[in-house]
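Q: I have 242 residues here and want to know how they pack in 3D. Can you give me a structure?
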Amino acid sequence: MKLAIAQIRSVRGDIAANLEQHQRWGAAAAQLGADIVVFPELSLTGYEPALAKQLAISPHHDCLESLQQLADSDHISIGVGVPTLHDLGICISLVWLHPQSARQVYHKQFIHQDEEPFFIRGHNSTSLIATATQVSTAICYELSVSTHVTTAIQQGAQIYLASVAKSATGVHQAHLRLQAIAQQYAMPVMMVNCVGACEDFDSAGGSAIWNRQGHCLDQLDSTQEGLLLLDTNTDQVFSKVL
């Protein structure tokens, strides 16, 4: 299996422009042979909690249809960071567009206290990806919650994939935590972050992949957009920067 992570610079609050970004990088991942590509936290809108109420959409919104068509034509599962509407509030979610299949939605279950004024905790039966049930997803703060990873492992996860929006300090802390997860549970770990301005901080990239021993196989820098792709059969990593 080939898993890709796409470090992008979202345009703040501009869903149309960000959809074009997702299509471009999704197509680039497919050209590299990826079975799955994952984008950063709230990649469709940028990480903008104060704007979430006006930007939130249904996970079944028609605006995602162009990405569904890409998933179908290139046979790739695409994970998009989306603020999603619910009766009780707004969730931070990963909406999955699977080829020739129904959409899958994973809601962030553990939210940081700074997010509580804007978002609600989500509820999921599993964090595993429907088309790759050995892969578990986490959204940002969740990677620091020990029960998140242990529950994923109990459900059968063999690869841990975190979609985040983090500053330079947050990236450093996340790298240490994810390296420890890789070592403790002897499984590959991936983190995808964004670059550029977020609501009240600058996101510092540093998207990276660790092997089962906790060794960093490759890492993107703090400013450039790019792809990292892991071949889980060989532990080889391919990178693409535009």
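Q: Anything worth noting?
A: The two ends are 24 Å apart (CA to CA). The chain has a mean pLDDT of 97.
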